[in-house]
Structure formats: structure tokens, C-alpha cells
Amino acid sequence: MKNIFKIIFTITITTLLFSCSDEDPIIYNGTEGANRTFLSFPGNTFTLPVAIDATGSVGITLNSSTKSAIERTFSIELDVAETTANPLTYTLPSTVTIPADSYQGTLTIDGADNNLVDNNVTQIIFSLANLPSNVDIDENKIQVNVIEVCPIPEDYMMGDYMIVDVAATVGPDNGTENFAAGIINITANTPTSRSFTAGILPAFAGDREVTMDLVCNSIVLNDVDPNLTCDSGANSYIYTSAGANNSLYDLNSDLTFTINYIEDPQGSCGGPFNSSFMITKL
After folding, report:
1. Residue partners of 214: CB distance under 8 A and separation at least 6
2. Would you call 186 exposed, middle or buried from its count of C-beta atoms within 10 A (0-12, 13-18, 19+)?
């Protein structure tokens, strides 16, 4: 049923983008509240960068398949059991609001170092709670990684690089190629985050955006999901941060980096495996 919701939401957003009129209060027809609303976040993993001895914030967009003549407010519930971030390092709002006549709202999570954020990545886990009976949401479990960041020069790790898979630098690897070799262009998402687009393997799953956070000397690969699975579908086949084995960077040079990461951390294809790729500046 969740997949059906996801397909319907994609179709309705496409309809919106190519519609010649934006006068109707909802996509399906002009009757307020006549159809179900499907909510969606753009992903289920986000990063809250907290500057060393300072603060930070992250804005997360909530999408709706409908719009309303009045603002809509939804409750946010913290998963206390799974959240590992210190409460003194973040402020999670209790609600998120989609303004009137809008398809999107933004919730902002503020972070503060307070001498409590370090190289150990911690998580905030939350979901939307007490949704109205005519509202559905897919992937209603959001993870926000709280990381400490240090100032990075604006032109550091930017521009064209050659990417190629290499043998894992820590422990045995799976012996497979995961990132298609070629030229990538690295840009800045934030002052301490870099991203590029690359072909993702196995089975040439297509181009994906790859994001790396520069976390006070460590390079943290954000989750990359090829949308593949090797079991009944319960677990996704993804690439994620190497944790304690994350690669290091040196601000004195950005010519070459070997990026460590974990392949298939949920074990849907026999993992987890240690993996690495190398990028070399052109």
C-alpha cells in the first residue's frame, strides 16, 4: 500500500507541474477536503551540521499532494528510545506547518555545540504523529545525523575529479565496483558539504547524487540508495558512512582522496562490506 501511495504522489506532483491552471485548491478537483492527502519528505536521512563551539540548523521540507485554503499543522513526535543525540545539542519543533494555499512546509531543527558535539555522529529520530484520518504518509521515520563541522575554504574539494573504485583501505571488501569510473564535478551544498552525481552500481542502477560531509577532518559519506534489494524487499541495498573508519582530509591539499564507506549495511545482499573509492583532481 505504501508503494501505491508513493506512485500516486509522484503522478499527482507531475500533474501539478504540467498543469495549465493553479486555481483549484487541490490537485484532484476543486472541492476542499474531498480527496485524501499524501505527505512525503524528500528523503528519510538528513544532516544537522553544528559548527564547533557554535551553532547550526537544517531545514526539512514536508510535501503535500493537496493544498488548503487554511494552514495545516502536524505534530512531530521524537523517538526517545532510538534518538542518541544529547537533548542539549538540538531543538526539535513540536509541529510543522504547511501554509495556506501551499503544497510545502518546512520544519527547522536548530543545533548547538555546547561542548557536547564531537566526531561521533549522533541521531535524532522523529515522525509525524496523530495524523487526520484523511492523511497518509510514506516513510514516516526521519533520521537526522548531528555532526560537528569545522570551517572549510570555499574552493576546497571543488571542481572536476576522476572517480574510480579501489580496494577497501580497512578490512576485506566485496571485490565489486559500486561507483562507475569517470569524471565527476564536485560542488558545495553547504560550506562543509560537497556533492556530485555519479553512476551507481551494481546493475547500473543509474545516476545518483552523492553527498559527503566534511566533519572536522573526517569525510562522512551520506546514504546512497540504488533502489535495489537482494531479498524479499524488506531491506534496501545502500552505501553509507564508514563510521569509525571514515576517511580523513587535510586542508593543505585537495588533490586526491580515498573515501571509505560501508556497502550493504543491512545485509540484504550478504553484507556489510568495507568499500572505498578514490577521487583525483583534474
Report:
1. 149, 150, 152, 156, 157, 192, 193, 194, 220, 249
2. buried
Q: Judging by DSSP bridges, how do beta strands 90-91 and 104-112 pair with one another?
A: antiparallel
Is residue 134 pLDDT above 80, yes or no? yes
Domain boundaries, the chain: 2-149, 159-281
What is the 8-class DSSP label of residue 8?
A: H
- Which DSSP symbol is given to 214? E
Q: What kind of architecture, by CATH, is found in domain 2-149?
A: Sandwich (2.60)
**Tell me, what's the pLDDT at 52?**
86
CA distance 235 to 225: 11
Report yes or no: 256 and 247 within 8 Å, Cβ to Cβ. Answer: no
* The residue count for the chain: 282
Kindly report the average pLDDT of the chain as a whole number. Answer: 84
This prediction has a pTM of 0.56
CATH number of 159-281: 2.40.128, 2.60.40, 3.30.10, 1.10.357? 2.40.128
Residues 6+ apart with CB under 8 A from 13: 63, 65
* pLDDT classification of 205: cutoffs 50, 70, 90: low
User: Region 104-125: what's the mean pLDDT?
Assistant: 93
Residues 6 or more apart whose CB falls under 8 angstroms from that of 172 comprise 273, 274
The DSSP bridge pattern shows strands 218-221 and 206-215 to be antiparallel
